[in-house]
Design goal:
By secondary structure, this protein is α/β, with parallel strands linked by helices. It has 3 domains: 231 residues, 3-Layer(aba) Sandwich (Rossmann fold); 72 residues; 86 residues, Arc Repressor Mutant, subunit A (Orthogonal Bundle). It is built from 19 helices and 11 strands. It has a 9-stranded mixed sheet, with helices on both faces. A hairpin with a 3-residue loop joins strand 8 and strand 9. Helix 4 runs parallel beside helix 5, helix 12 packs across helix 13 and helix 18 crosses helix 19. The N and C termini lie far apart (66 Å). About 3% of the residues have low confidence. This is Helicase HerA central domain-containing protein. InterPro entries: ATPase_Atu1862_pred, HerA-like, HerA_central, P-loop_NTPase. Pfam families: DUF87 (PF01935).
């Protein structure tokens, strides 16, 4: 502590109450997280979501397993999240080099696996998320809505419901204003570093119970100093200085170095602007082929302290058309069971995907039954109410070929209408279409119908009684006219 003795942190209390760290770039936020991880590495299992690759050096000294998040699928990372808890291995999920959308999807899958593991494996885990505003943004950004919803849902689960499952969230952010409030509000311990923007200073002061006039003191904090408050730290706001660390970050900060003696200006021009010879322009050495990504599940199994854990047998590759058709029928049956739940139509796709993977594992179909794009296609067919036998018919295959160029979110609506038209059934009501789209808004359902008509895949007709019918362009199938305001069915 500033002007006093050492500041101790009650680790057991921290595991029950969670921690929020804020500090502008250069305030020492990552140094604080590294100090916390090093001091607790031998006491509790750790999982680190690392968007910049700063914490991979922990592996050399403390034995953390480093997972390259960009080299593995979401299904693999979800399985890794489960297995790291089963085997009690500390893990660094390195997301360096991936774009924001991929980082959010991969982090959500990994956190989802940790969250959904069986009750018998709910051992305490310190889950550190650096740059948390990337994974739980307060507002929509340049990433897709689906990636944002998945990541925000995983972060909310970590901070709101993780405690009962042994997950203790430690989140760090550069700006409180950019972090989703429902995620930040669940922390009971705070370490607030140097910050300059008024909105962030005011929020930090509010969280610490300080008066507004004291908020400007956050501008005066030196690098490595934080104001601490919480049951795991202290009962009153106290300034603390973060001690030294044993490992180093791979990202070096700016350093001033003297220039070497500069060559004459004419030499500089020749060095920089000399034309590239023709032979150098084309005779580039060929790059060796990149090695395949490591088997992440094998790494986790090898990393386990107990050598008696049995490895799961891999599913044989489906080769024949008959086998592929049988597998698809099983997928359709599983999805039909999921969609029988009244609320299933309004759940996000990533939640349905996780439920689907769990059921596939129960059925003995392995952890990687379908990837996300394949799952979306099968889900669209299941939402249309098509059974496994009909899905194999030539007529339905033709409908799926028409639907293939459509966006994922409207493909299910088209297939729903195509099924009704193929069977000569009444045209689906707005309520039925809204459910297939995953919304309660009838207006959004009607807008998607208009979009499909603009894409020249359907033609809508309204008769003199106000009943709507739809025809599929190409095959010429047409539904029976029905009331668009009818009940769902």
């Amino acid at each position: 502590m500033r002007g006093g003795g050492p500041a101790a942190m009650d680790l057991a209390e921290l595991l029950s109450t969670r921690l929020l760290v804020q500090g502008n770039s250069g305030s020492g936020k990552s140094h604080l997280l590294r100090r916390l991880l090093e001091q607790s590495a031998t006491l509790v299992q750790q999982a680190i979501i690392d968007p910049e690759g700063d914490f991979v050096s922990l592996a050399e000294k403390f034995g953390h397993l480093v997972i390259d998040g960009a080299a593995h699928t979401e299904a693999e990372l979800q399985a890794a999240g489960e297995r790291m808890r089963v085997h009690r291995a500390s893990v660094v999920l390195n997301l360096e080099g991936a774009d924001a959308d991929v980082q959010m999807r991969r982090a959500a899958a990994f956190l989802g696996g940790m969250f959904e593991v069986g009750r018998e494996y709910w051992y305490p885990v310190l889950v550190v998320v650096d740059e948390a505003q990337l994974f739980a943004p307060a507002a929509a950004g340049d990433v897709s809505d689906e990636a944002r919803r998945a990541s925000l849902g995983a972060m909310t689960n970590l901070m709101c419901r993780g405690r009962k499952r042994g997950l203790a969230g430690v989140i760090a952010t550069q700006r409180l204003a950019k972090l989703a409030k429902n995620v930040a509000a669940e922390a009971s311990n705070f370490l607030m570093g140097r910050t300059f923007l008024d909105i962030d200073m005011m929020r930090a002061a509010d969280l610490l119970g300080m008066e507004r006039r004291q908020a400007e003191s956050f501008r005066d904090l030196e690098r490595g100093y934080f104001v601490a408050l919480g049951p795991a730290l202290c009962r009153r706001p106290v300034a603390v200085r973060i001690g030294p660390v044993e490992t180093e970050s791979r990202s070096a900060g700016p350093a001033l170095l003297p220039f070497a003696p500069a060559p004459p200006p004419e030499d500089i021009r020749d060095l920089i602007l000399t034309k590239l010879p023709e032979r150098e322009a084309f005779a580039r050495p060929s790059r060796p082929a990149a090695p395949p990504p490591p088997d992440i599940l094998a790494q986790l199994a090898a990393h386990a302290a107990s050598a008696a854990v049995e490895a799961e047998a891999e599913e044989p590759v489906v080769e024949t058309p008959a086998d592929r058709a049988a597998q698809r029928r099983r997928f359709t049956t599983i999805l039909a069971e999921i969609l029988r739940d009244e609320d299933a139509g309004f759940r996000p796709v990533h939640v349905l995907y996780q439920d689907f993977l769990v059921r596939c594992r129960i059925e003995g179909m392995g952890r990687q039954a379908l990837d996300m794009p394949q799952f979306r296609r099968v889900l669209a067919t299941a939402r249309a109410g098509i059974d496994a036998e009909t899905a194999e018919t030539e007529a339905w295959q033709a409908a799926e070929r028409i639907a293939a160029p459509l966006p994922d979110d409207v493909r299910g609506i088209f297939l729903l209408i195509a099924r009704a038209a193929m069977e000569g059934a009444p045209c689906p009501s707005d309520a039925t279409i809204a459910r297939a789209y995953g919304t309660h808004s009838l207006g959004r359902a009607r807008r998607q119908l208009a979009y499909l008509e603009e894409q020249n895949v359907i033609v809508l007709r309204i008769d003199g009684m106000g009943r709507r019918s739809a025809a599929i362009i190409g095959p010429g199938w047409e539904t029976v006219p029905s009331d668009p305001n009818g009940v769902e069915g």
